[in-house]
Amino acid sequence: MLTGKNIILGICGGIAAYKTPHLVRLFKKAGANVQVLATASALQFVSELSLATVSRRPVLRDLFDLEGPGDDDKTVHITLGEWADAFVIAPATANTIARLNAGLCDDMLSVCFITLRPDKPVLIAPAMDGHMYGSPTVQRNLSALAAQGCSILDPESGDLASGQCGLGRMPEPEAIVTAMEAMLRPAPVSPLQGRKVVVTAGPTREKLDDVRFLSNYSSGKMGFAVAREAARRGADVRLVAGPVSLGTPPGVERIDVESAADMMEAASRFFGDCDLFIGAAAVADYRPEAPVTGKIKKNDEAMALRLVRNPDILGEFSAGRKPGQLSVGFALETGGGIGYAREKLERKNLDLVAFNVYDGATTGFEVDTNALTLIDRAGNVTELPVMPKDALAGRLLDEIEPLLPRR
After folding, report:
1. Rg of the Cα trace of the chain?
2. DSSP code of residue 273
3. Other CB atoms closer than 10 Å to residue 306's CB: what's the count?
4. What is the pLDDT of residues 327-364, one digit of tens each?
5. Cβ neighbours of residue 273 under 8 Å, at least 6 residues apart?
6. Is residue 101 among the annotated active site residues?
7. Are residues 227 and 81 both part of a single domain?
8. Catalytic: which of 141, 216, 310, 370?
9. Do 152 and 255 have their domain in common?
10. Among 55, 67, 56, 60, which residue's Cα sits nearest to residue 40?
11. Number of structural domains, the chain?
12. Could you read off the pLDDT of 52-87 as tens digits, one per residue?
């Protein structure tokens, strides 16, 4: 997958930099050419000689490094942007993330980020203390970079250099290589080419009063991955998204909504002419019957809350769809429950249901991986093991494509 690809690897000054020689070795083993760019702080954590040895190229640090991928290259900070097929920044520190978002250009890494051609993929793997990663400043900078097209590979949970245990560890080099392979995978000749696809993603928020709401833990990552992959295969994709902190996938028209009623109104505009509807959103089943204006005051020891059913977006589409339109839904349970998925397939008149189990660690909400059991109307069952959600989206669409009517 990476054979012959030219990859820039930017390394920042975090303890996870010690893993980067192994990352370079994995890229090389996959057939890629790797040019390492290191900040001054990065070389406090990893040897420049080690990186140069495994990459077989000098490590570039500042704007006056003249050795690059071309012969006698005197403007390497410009020509690297033409040479590269992709840019990976791992580990990406809070400082570098802020500088990239601000557009600063004071070392080789930041200048090459600016001069990279806009059609080339960028993968950023943040790594830092958990409190730093969760700070509003870092999250704002990451969201801004995602909005301009960068892919953010979320950190993992585990022991941190500070002695704490939590979110902030750089993903293992193998996961970074897998993510880069998915980003550089050539778009297949797909039956989705030119088809109109609607995807719903993320949670909904159901208003209690002006400052509170009912919702769930959906991050929207699975639905966004499906939309991204459908667009990569040439589909005309509309993504109806609940409140999430994710960048819009390239080539996708995004409509942001908040409540289930909002999502129903937005999605229904596309019911009539779409070829494929994929309901990946975690839509709230119920909403407060009478939201309060202002703020509910704490008065009594107990409070009764009356809920009413929300519209069934996927069910509404399936009930009124025209011949040739496909309907795909998701079913999530906390254990077992595949019988519920089969029942949902029949009750909502779906062509395929994707069943997944929430375990809070590798599958379900707020994680980068998932596993699916796919069931179609003919009773065929396909088990997809735990894998990154981007890869899983590709496998899901592989199973959906044969169900599309021939043109």
Report:
1. 23
2. T
3. 8
4. 999 999 887 778 999 999 999 999 999 999 887 777 87
5. 196
6. no
7. no
8. 216
9. no
10. 60
11. 2
12. 999 999 999 887 655 555 445 557 778 888 899 999
